[in-house]
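W.,

You were right to be curious about this one. When I first looked at the sequence I had no strong expectations either way, so I just let the prediction run and decided to look at it fresh. Below is the sequence, 430 residues in total, followed by the output.
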Amino acid sequence: MKRKLSGGQLLDLIDGSLTPCEVLIDTVQGTVLALGTDLPEADETIFLHGEWLLPGLIDLHVHLREPGQTHKETIASGTLAAAAGGFTQVACMPNTIPPLDTPQRVRDVVQRGKAAGAAQVRPIACITRDQQGQELTDFAGLKEAGAVAISDDGKGVQDGGLMREALVIAASLNLPVAIHAEDASIARGGLMNPGAAAKFQVPPLSASAEAAMVARDLLLAEETGAHLHVCHVSAEPTVALIRFAKARGVQVTAEVTPHHLLLSEEAVRLDDGVFKVNPPLRSERDRMACWEGLLDGTLDVVATDHAPHTRDEKAQGIWKSPFGMVGSEFVLPLLYTHLVVLHQWPLQRLMHAMSLRPAQVFGLHGGVLRVGGPADLTVFDGSFKTYIDPKKMHSKGQNTPFAGWPVNGRVRLTLVAGQVIYRETEGTTS
């Protein structure tokens, strides 16, 4: 069967131009047959009204909570939420219950993702058994089962010697190692950046806890030749270290979240668990460093760190509520509004960070629309104006500090392998 999208505008990822374009898709093979104008008729035609044709977005950091915490999220609800946000692929973190530390558990998540039929699931497996930082997992077996990277996300590997051993093995397998950078001896159970911590009288979580571990692992990555991927960068010293390491030729990539780009600790005015995230919201200086790091390419990708929790859990205040915010469903209109519309960033720079570069970082297909390539695409209406309404989200989690924010744009359609997996209805948030 052939499906055609007619009436859209194709974004050029090089010069940022938007050109009237049709897309002809082979839905059996899941590939793009042709791009252009006056294409042949198809079995089905979807008529657009000038919306933008973008390569399917790819999120390298989400928490799908399955297995073990399906009251917070399931693979089905999480991947539907991602599709509603324009994502065609998501890399899910391994800190489930039990953790993704065996090939069978990785295969199980892959199969559940296929059964869900929404955004494609790319599991990230554990570095250490049960994420305890004591014994390495079977990296080769995990990769064969479908893991696209390894990480002990939520915990940093505290033993430097064990981390070096992990990087040596990962380098031999060409397997990225994604780190949650937090030196526990410095962090000491901290909850918020020092400024906000003093205000709410909770233990501080200093930026040095992040930067110290990044410095250690950059040195080990340089020595071993491994691909180090730094998760959710939040601090100016970390950006500086990564910039320095890249100049030295270290194989390092890094991600930044929408909340670390748009919020600082100054936004935390109430004892509200919705603002509690790890790494915490930092100073304005740190926020601007992340902003500049994304713009100049020091930080490669935007990743949501989508971390759903129940309303009751987040209602416990800063002391007791769990870390995390959701983000899958509204990140594109949110960043399009604040980076492109308000601050005149090139649209193609944002798309590089949300599609092309994520594909390159973890060696995934997609990231660009081309003839013969996968028919993974996002149809985006940049002229639409709405606001972020958690009650209209597909995710089980509604824990976001961006509730009520006005945004430009909405995702109209998301296609994976040529199949429509999300179609917007009037009045949704994205």
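Here's what jumped out at me. The chain is about 30% helix and 20% strand. And, maybe more interesting for your project: The mean pLDDT is 96.

Coffee later to discuss?

I.
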